[in-house]
Specification:
Helix content: 25-40%
Number of domains: 4
Number of helices: 16
CATH class of the largest domain: Alpha Beta
Bound molecules: flavin-adenine dinucleotide
Low-confidence stretches: none
CATH topology of the largest domain: Uridine Diphospho-n-acetylenolpyruvylglucosamine Reductase, domain 3
Shape: globular
Largest sheet: 8 strands, antiparallel
Strand content: 15-25%
CATH architecture of the largest domain: 2-Layer Sandwich
Mean pLDDT: 96
Length: 462
C-alpha cells in the first residue's frame, strides 16, 4: 500500500493536475449520491479522457492497493457510484469521455463513450430519424456507461426491454488494467461466450465500461398517450390485456399510478388529472410508423368503457397534452419527497401477481407497521412497482423494508427490479437469493477481481 499523497502524485503525473481533484468543494458532487443518503469521502477523483488512461489508472491504483469507484452521471438510486467514508477510495469519473463515435442509420447502431449523457445519445439518434429507446427521468444526467452498468429500465421496457437487450458491443477495462474490446456491431455473434453480459448490470464491480455500441430502432412517426382510471389493479391488468389485443406490440409504456400518488402530485405540484377521480390510474403510450394508431387507441378506449374496465379516460389531443399527462407521472417522486419521509422499494413480481401482491403487502404493513401510508406507482406492464411507504418518526425503516420484501419474496419477486443493489440493498440480497446463487456471484467476482479493488462493498459483501 502506498501513501495517498504518492498515489495522487502518480495519477497527476499520468493525467495532468486538472484531471485529478484532491480537495475542496470540487470533490463534493462526486462524494454523495443523488438522494444524499450515502455521503462518502474520496481519496481523490480522477477524470481520464481515454480508454488507455482508464487502464493506466487501474494499474496504478492496483499497485497502490487503492479501490476504484466508477462513476457516470451519479444519478443511481442505490448508492453504487459513491465512495465509502474511509478517504481511501478513488472515484473514477467517466464524464470527460463523452464522445459519440458513430451513428449508423442503416445498420441501426450508435457507438458512444461511457460518459456520453443519455439524452445526448437519444438526440443524436433522433437527428437521423432513429430511436434510442432507453428513457428515464434522469436521462439529462445519466450516462451511457452508467445505464449499461446499471442495466437501467425506464418507461419503455415493455416494448424494447431493459438496457441489456439493446447492447450489441462493449469495451471494458478489467480490474487488472486489461482492455477487453468487444465493440462489435453484430446482431448475430455466437462465437464463444457472450462475456459482455456479465458487465451489464454489474454496477461497476467487475469492470469499467469505457464505450458501448447500442441498438437503435426506426423512429415511430405517430404516438398516442392516454390516461384512464380504473377501480383496482386487477382492472388495470384487464386493461393491459385489452390494450395488447387492440394495439398489439405498439404499446411502449403502461404505467400504474395510485390515487395516493395523484393526491400527492395535486398537493405538492399543483397538477390534476383531467379525468374523474378513481382509485387507480393507468398511463398508456403507444407508438407506430403506420397510420391508424389513434383510431386503434380510440377503439381500445371504447371497448374499455363498454366492458366496464375503465371508469373514465382521455386521449391526448396534442404533444403538449401528452406532456401534461406524463407530467403527472413524473412529479410523483418529487411530490412524495415533499410530503415527508418515505421508505422506498423498487420491486417486481410476476405480472399477473401484481394485484395480489398489492393487497398482501398492504395487509402486512397494516399489521406490522400501523400508521404507514402506501404510495404505489410504477411500470405495471413490466410487473415493476415502486412501492413506497410514507412513514413518521415512530416507524423503523428496516422493519418496513423487511415486511415489504418478505411479501415480494413470497410472490417469487425481486427486491430490486431496475435500480440495482449498490450499497443500499447489499445487506438484504443474501436473504432473498439462494446460497448457490450467491456463491456463483462471488466466484465470478473473485475470478475477475481477486483483490476486491473494483467498487468494494457494492452488490456483494466480501
Ligand atoms: C429522477 C430519477 C429517475 C430515475 N428513473 C429510473 C428509471 O426509470 N429506471 C431505472 O432503471 N433507473 C432510474 N434511475 C436511476 C439511474 O438514473 C439509472 O440507474 C442510470 O442508469 C444511472 O446512470 P449514471 O450515469 O447516473 O450512473 P451512476 O449513478 O454514476 O452509476 C450507477 C452504477 O453504475 C456504476 N457505473 C457508472 N458508470 C460506470 C462505468 N462507466 N463503468 C462501470 N460502472 C459504472 C457505478 O459505480 C454505480 O454502481 C433514476 C434516477 C433518478 C435520479
Amino acid at each position: 500500500m502506498i501513501k495517498s499523497t504518492d498515489l495522487q502524485q502518480r495519477l497527476m503525473g499520468l493525467l495532468g493536475p486538472t484531471a485529478v481533484i484532491t480537495e475542496g468543494s470540487d470533490l463534493e458532487p462526486y462524494a454523495v449520491d443523488w438522494r444524499k443518503l450515502f455521503p462518502g469521502r474520496p481519496a481523490c477523483v480522477v477524470r481520464p479522457s481515454s480508454t488507455e488512461q482508464v487502464a493506466q489508472i487501474v494499474r496504478i491504483c492496483r499497485e497502490a492497493g487503492a479501490a476504484i469507484v466508477p462513476q457516470g452521471g451519479n444519478t443511481g438510486l442505490a448508492g453504487g457510484a459513491v465512495p465509502d467514508a474511509s478517504g481511501t477510495q478513488v472515484v473514477l469519473s467517466l464524464n470527460r469521455m463523452a464522445a459519440i463515435r458513430n451513428v449508423d442509420s442503416v445498420g441501426l447502431t450508435i457507438e458512444a463513450e461511457a460518459g456520453c449523457v443519455l439524452k445526448v445519445a437519444q438526440d443524436a439518434a433522433a437527428a437521423v430519424g432513429r430511436l434510442l429507446p432507453i428513457s428515464l427521468a434522469a436521462e439529462g444526467s445519466a450516462t451511457i456507461g452508467g445505464v449499461v452498468a446499471a442495466n437501467a429500465g425506464g418507461v419503455n421496457v415493455l416494448r424494447y426491454g431493459m438496457t441489456r437487450s439493446l447492447v450489441l458491443g462493449l469495451e471494458v477495462v478489467l480490474p487488472d488494467g486489461t482492455i477487453a474490446n468487444g465493440l462489435r456491431k453484430l446482431r448475430k455473434d455466437n462465437a464463444g461466450y457472450d462475456w459482455k453480459q456479465i458487465f451489464i448490470g454489474s454496477e461497476g464491480t467487475l469492470g469499467i465500461v469505457t464505450a458501448a455500441v447500442l441498438r437503435l430502432l426506426p423512429r415511430p412517426k405517430h404516438s398516442v398517450t392516454a390516461l384512464l382510471s380504473v377501480a383496482d389493479p386487477a382492472a388495470a391488468l384487464r386493461l393491459l390485456e385489452l390494450a395488447q389485443d387492440e394495439l398489439g406490440d405498439q404499446i411502449s409504456a403502461f404505467e400504474l399510478i395510485s390515487a395516493t400518488s395523484m393526491q400527492l402530485v395535486a398537493k405538492h405540484a399543483g397538477l390534476k388529472a383531467p379525468i374523474a377521480e378513481g382509485e387507480w390510474f393507468v398511463l398508456i403510450e403507444a407508438a407506430s410508423s403506420l397510420a391508424g394508431l389513434r383510431e386503434a387507441a380510440e377503439m381500445m378506449l371504447g371497448s374499455a368503457f363498454e366492458q366496464e374496465i375503465a371508469l373514465d379516460g382521455v386521449i391526448a389531443e396534442s404533444g403538449s397534452q401528452a406532456a401534461q399527462l406524463w407530467a403527472l407521472h413524473e412529479h410523483v417522486t418529487e411530490s412524495e419527497a415533499r410530503e415527508g419521509k418515505s421508505v422506498k422499494h423498487d420491486v417486481s413480481v410476476p405480472l399477473t401477481e401484481v394485484p395480489r401482491f398489492l393487497i398482501e403487502a398492504g395487509r402486512a404493513l397494516a399489521e406490522g407497521a400501523p400508521g404507514t401510508r402506501v404510495n404505489a406507482f410504477g411500470h405495471l406492464g413490466d410487473g415493476n412497482i415502486h412501492y413506497n411507504v410514507l412513514v413518521d418518526a415512530s416507524h423503523d425503516a428496516g422493519t418496513v423494508n423487511r415486511i415489504v420484501h418478505d411479501v415480494v419474496a413470497a410472490f417469487g419477486g425481486s427486491i430490486s427490479a431496475e435500480h440495482g443493489i449498490g450499497q443500499y440493498r447489499v445487506g438484504e440480497l443474501a436473504r432473498y437469493r439462494g446460497a448457490a446463487e450467491m456463491d456463483l456471484a462471488r466466484t465470478l467476482k473473485r475470478a475477475l477481481d481477486p483483490e476486491n479493488l473494483l467498487n468494494p462493498g457494492k452488490v456483494l459483501l466480501a
